Structure formats: C-alpha cells, structure tokens
Amino acid sequence: MENIVPVVDAAMKKSGLDLRDIDAIAFTQAPGLIGALLVGGQFAKSLALALNKPLIAVHHMQAHVLANLLQDPAPAFPFLCLTVSGGHTQIVLCASATSIKVIGETIDDAAGEAFDKTAKLLGLPYPGGPLIDKYAQLGKAIYKFPEPKIEGLNFSFSGLKTSILYFLNNAGTANVYKKELAVNAEERKRFIDENLNNICASVQDRIISILINKLKKAVIQTGITNVCIAGGVSANSALRKKLTETGTALGWKTFIPAFEYCTDNAAMIAVTGYHKYLAKEFAVIDIAQTANSSF
Questions:
Q1: Do 67 and 271 form a contact (C-beta atoms < 8 A)?
Q2: Long-range contact set of residues 135-139: C-beta below 8 Å, sequence gap at least 24
C-alpha cells in the first residue's frame, strides 16, 4: 500500500507517457499472497474506472510462461515451457499466447521448495536456492539421491527432500532412507561444513535431472521441439546450461528468459496483458483476487 503509488508514478515518468495514453490496465489476479493481490487488484480496478479503460486480469503462472515472448527471437507457437518456482513446477503446452494447457505438474512440492528446504537443512539463509547454485559450482555431484518413479509427466519432490534429510542426519554414512543411524548434531554439522559444495552439487544435479527427464518425455509425447523455461528457478545456472546442452543434443530450439524476467516482474504481466488485449479478453470490474488458482 505504501509503495504502489510511487512505483506506478516512477514507471510512468520513466516511460515518458501520461496515464491517459494507456490502452488498458492489467493486474495479477491469481495466484499469490492475498494481501499483495488485493492491493494490486483494487488499485488496478480504481485506475481502470477513473480512466475509463479496459481491465485485464492476468494469471501469474501464464505470465511466467509468456515472459519468453519478451526476448528476441521469441519462441514460435506451439512451444513447451517448463515453469519452475518456489510454489509451482509445471510443464505447459502453449498453442498460442491465450491458449495454455498444463500437461504435467508436481503432485506435492515444487522444485524451488526443494531447493529452499534443502538450504534450510544445510543451515543456509532464505532464499537458499541461489546459494545452492553458488556452492554447487564449486563442488561435484558425488552423492546419489533417488529419482522419484512418477508415471507420466507429473513431478514429485517430497520423497527427495526426505532422502536428503536422512542423508544429512546420517552424515553421509548410510543409505539415505535409513533413519535409525542418525549421528549427533556436532557430527552432522561437521559433515555439512566439510562437504557443503559437493552436497549442493549433488542435490542440484538430481533436481535438474528430474526436471529435464520429464521435459524429454514431454517433447517425445507432443512432438514439439520449441522448448522454454520460466519462473524463479529458471535463473539457476546449471538448469540453464543443462537445457541448452540437451536442446543441442536432441535438436530442440531452446529459449531461456533473461535473469530479470525469471523472478516475479511487472514486464511479464504487461506482455500477457498485451496479448489478452489483442484477443479482447477483458475482466469485469468485480472480479475477485484469489491466492490459489490453476490454469
């Protein structure tokens, strides 16, 4: 509430435009933190009413996918997009900017959550995903964590998180599934401190292999070889590298957003609003914001 007016004012000044030059008002309708959604939604509705401009409701996850359209060259339709963040892990098929279908998603936890919860187990501050990426670059994937046996294109990360917990509790001395051999806290901390880089590299390697292996299946099933990534975890350096390497090996055309368009940003809402404007997909003024919503 304190920042939204100054932010909009700064954006308008930077653009060199006046509010009356705007053709429509787009805002994030769902999903997300309800407090933030309510502030943005009510402000957007008020602005649309005051300016007599169309209102456009944007789904946050659709916007992450369409962030790929901000780059040049942009992917041609249809394309597949692996969307990975702290709250979501999905493979979506994009037939057009306004026709997006989820064909695979996590049945429990998201990939970004697996990164952050692992970081917490390692004693790293939040958000821990970028730190795991940083330390992983200094280590090697010498520890082998299991890959969940999930049919189809869906994902699961809860079991992986549990195996990492048991592994750390045993200071790497036992099978990751055995709870009864837990060492004391001092031994556990010493093991982590002495092997942090390799632990991070091993965890990251498994999370990325899970993501890429499902993406390979999606390409085979759909026949679509235009492949993108999106969401906060798409800023991970190893994931970006692995997607590029896989695409080169298998003949895919791969697209990776610039770092500033991976995490939550206004540009992805704007580009989605632009395409919905062209399709005349406008919202009613009393549309509700919601914290939880799928495509």
A1: yes
A2: 135/196, 135/197, 135/200, 135/201, 136/197, 136/200, 136/201, 136/203, 136/204, 136/205, 136/238, 137/201, 137/237, 137/238, 138/197, 138/201, 139/196, 139/197, 139/198, 139/199, 139/200, 139/201, 139/202
* Residue span of the structural domain in which 181 resides: 75-256
274 and 244 within one domain: no
CB 103 within 8 A of CB 227: no
**Are residue 105 and residue 188 in the same domain, yes or no?**
yes
The full length of the chain comes to 295
Do 117 and 240 sit in the same domain of this protein?
yes
Cβ atoms within 10 A of the Cβ of 231, count? 27
Instruction: Render pLDDT for 209-249 as a digit per residue (tens, 0 to 9).
Output: 999 999 999 999 999 999 999 999 999 999 999 999 999 99
Asked if residue 289 is part of any domain, the answer here is: no
Quote the pTM value: 0.91
Helix (H) or strand (E) holding 60: helix 60-66
Instruction: Put residue 263 in one of left, alpha, beta given phi > 0 → left and psi -120 to 50 → alpha.
Output: beta
State the total domains in the chain: 2
Q: Provide the token pair at 73.
A: 């060259």
Which candidate, 1, 45, 51, places its Cα nearest to that of 27? Answer: 45
Residue 291 lies in a domain: no
The predicted model gives 188-212 an average pLDDT of 96
Is residue 112 included in any domain, yes or no?
yes
- Residue 292 falls within a domain, yes or no? no
